Amino acid sequence: MRVRFSLLLVLLSVIHPHCQADESQQALVRLVETDDSLCLAHGGKMVSLQLTEAAMSVDQSPVEVWIDRWFMQVQTADHTRHVLTPEVPETELGCSQSIAGPQHWTLGTIKRLPVAGAPYRKD
User: Fold this and answer.
1) Do residues 80 and 108 lie in contact, with contact meaning Cβ atoms separated by under 8 Å?
2) pLDDT in tens, the chain (123 residues)
3) What is the pTM of this model?
4) Can you spell out the DSSP letters for the chain?
5) Which fold has domain 20-112?
6) Which residues are 25's β-sheet partners?
């Protein structure tokens, strides 16, 4: 039993860094809560995914973001892909409080996509 638990901890420590975006990539986007009349009726706020100012000023290439949704502290099967650009720098994810309970989102993989027609470059 103790060996299994130790192996589980080792496995989690190896997998964990690969499950989330690194800090430099996380500087490209942020999750923002704003007031919204529908969400306020349920005691919550609208949660949006936004490009940061730094992301828009440095490079004009699109940013791909994978998001995980959690409902009532349980991760759901929702693993959604969003592409943000300087032309469309924000997308609404949903209310932080639904009729049935609270929900939140976590950032998964974040990466810059090549600009259409531009040669591929490995960063």
Assistant:
1) no
2) 443 433 333 333 434 444 445 556 778 999 999 999 999 999 999 999 999 887 777 777 899 999 999 999 999 998 999 999 989 999 999 999 999 999 999 999 999 988 775 555 565
3) 0.71
4) -HHHHHHHHHHHHHHHHHHS--HHHHTTEEEEEE--HHHHHTT--EEEEEE-HHHHHH--S-EEEEEEEEETTEEEEEEEEEEE-SSS-EEEEEESB-SS-BEEEEEEEEEEPPPTTSPP---
5) Immunoglobulin-like (2.60.40)
6) none
